[in-house]
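Q: Predict the assembly, please.
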Amino acid sequence: DSGVTQTPKHLITATGQRVTLRCSPRSGDLSVYWYQQSLDQGLQFLIHYYNGEERAKGNILERFSAQQFPDLHSELNLSSLELGDSALYFCASSSLDRGVDNEQFFGPGTRLTVL
Amino acid sequence: AQKITQTQPGMFVQEKEAVTLDCTYDTSDPSYGLFWYKQPSSGEMIFLIYQGSYDQQNATEGRYSLNFQKARKSANLVISASQLGDSAMYFCAMREISDYKLSFGAGTTVTVRA
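A: Predicted assembly structure:
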């Protein structure tokens, strides 16, 4: 158990809908990262927050948004869902925002299926 | 351009034997870190081992060791004495000093045979 929690574990929804994925980082970690794992794109970085501030954006679609709240939990909002958004969404946390040895601890992931 | 390349989509290994998973990387940053993660069929990402670009010695963690060849830009994972529970997908990843994120390779599926 990494100490990172994600809810829900599974989510099945229809095209055009909007969903919210939730992540609670490990106790004391200030950084939260979101990654998407799909069959065609592999593991892709979406966005990074540190202590409530957005630090970096990756291949995140405009239909997707995220935020980190004062209690450090984070939410990833996905709207106008398409079939291609079906993927495993991971949240990871770390204590720092920089540093090459700053290990990221991954949550169990949320498996999103868009029908 | 791909930052991490894993050229072996799948590998079979006999129980109790060693297996080497290849990973090459591309960066111009002077400082970077290399990570290996294991993803079993249940889906979670499990951290295995870390190697810093300035580390003089190859990293080891139990049955996992990292064969780091900086000049060749390779960071191969060696799993010794394979066990059935080692069957999983393995990802090589890199974090550069200039970046926040981890860049992942495509992964290698390892199947351990009894």
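Chain B touches chain A at residues 31-33, 35, 37, 43-47, 50, 52-53, 91, 95-97, 99-107 (CB under 8 Å). The CA atoms of residues 93 and 104 of chain B lie 4 Å apart.
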